[in-house]
Write a structure and sequence with these properties.
The protein is built from 11 helices and 11 strands. The chain is of the alpha/beta class. It folds into 2 domains: 166 residues, D-Maltodextrin-Binding Protein, domain 2, CATH 3.40.190; 107 residues, Periplasmic binding protein-like II (D-Maltodextrin-Binding Protein, domain 2), CATH 3.40.190.10. It starts with a helix and ends in a 5-residue tail after the last helix. Keywords: Signal.
């Protein structure tokens, strides 16, 4: 009799556990089906007004429309994006926190010791978004008038030439280091607290060179306030079609773009990721968004890159590209 009772209790406990698990799975499936049922937060790791924030705000509204909920941009700036990355990595994996970060996601491991997250494993991938090209600039009265003359000038003057950047780990610094590495020289690098002050001093003639984004430099190139020696893209930019690429001028394969990708915390269910990816693609295919990004000299990526695998593959390649350059230069030392 006692054995029969125990067997019945065991069977009842097993059935209860199975029913509980089934209910949880059913509840999760229902939650995924009904997602989103509230607003979504799009975290940006930099202050409002910059290129990454511009991209985020341009796609937030159409993404929200595609998802049927408001997408709210939240700026969490500081420590080169690591504060925001940590916040997102620790957020609930329910799809209500998404993240837009630029190429800093690929350089963080080489720049910072003991990150509280892993750029490659702490996030789910939604897709690449857009690229912001860069231009190698010189002050207005720098003697060289083209890239060939600049090469000769650099070889003759070396460390006497100053190259500004926006601080340790900034894309302008990485671009400058890659340029010096390819040229086989070491210039005098001058770090600033942001691209704004660096560009101001270039315009004022206090520094010689700067690698900067097109979103803020094209007007100065067009009015002749700075010299443009080459773009860091593989094709010429329509807005400044008269400026050759560095690749076509001899630095083969020289390409630096401030690329942007969209992520979520690790563990977000695939059905939700699929919805986010579909909303991202729809927003980037919006004629209004295309026009506004084009006006800001920001390039939308190709469809094959607007995918989780497209972003993952690109991130891995960028980690392998920039890690050795950063470590060799002892950044941020």
């Amino acid at each position: 009799m006692e054995i029969k009772v125990k067997i019945k209790n065991f069977l009842f406990s097993g059935m209860t556990a199975a029913l509980t698990a089934s209910a949880l799975l059913s509840g999760n499936a229902m939650a995924e089906k009904d997602w989103p049922s509230k607003s979504i937060t799009l975290v940006v790791p930099f202050a409002a007004g910059g290129p990454t924030d511009t991209v985020a705000r341009l796609i937030a509204v159409p993404m929200g429309q595609a998802l049927g909920q408001t997408v709210v941009v939240e700026n969490v700036n500081g420590a080169g994006g690591t504060i925001a990355s940590t916040k997102v990595a620790r957020a609930a994996p329910d799809g209500y926190t998404i993240y837009l970060h630029h190429m800093g996601m690929a350089t963080a491991n080489a720049l910072y010791d003991k990150l509280p997250y892993d750029p490659m494993t702490s996030f789910e991938y939604i897709g690449q978004v857009a690229d912001v090209p860069m231009v190698l600039l010189g002050k207005k009265d720098l003697p060289p008038n083209n890239f060939k003359e600049l090469e000769a000038y650099i070889k003759a003057n070396g460390s006497k030439i100053t190259m500004a950047n926006a601080g340790p780990g900034a894309v302008s610094q990485l671009c400058g280091l890659l340029f010096q590495s390819r040229m086989g020289v070491k210039l005098t690098n001058i770090p600033y607290k942001g691209t704004g002050p660096a560009l101001t001093d270039l315009l004022g003639g206090q520094v010689d060179l700067l690698c900067d984004q097109t979103t803020q430099t094209i007007p100065y190139i067009k009015d002749g306030r700075v010299k443009a020696y080459g773009t860091t893209t593989m094709k010429r930019l329509p807005a400044i079609a008269n400026v050759p690429t560095l690749d076509e001028q001899g630095l083969k394969g020289f390409e630096v773009k401030v690329w942007h990708g969209m992520y979520t915390p690790k563990g977000v269910p695939k059905p939700i990721l699929d919805k986010l990816n579909a909303a991202l693609k729809k927003s980037l295919n919006s004629p209004d968004v295309k026009k506004r990004l084009e006006d800001a000299n920001i390039d939308i990526v190709s469809p094959d890159k607007m995918t989780p695998n497209g972003l993952k593959t690109h991130l891995e390649a960028e980690v392998n590209k920039w890690g050795p350059i950063i470590r060799k230069a002892n950044i941020p030392d």
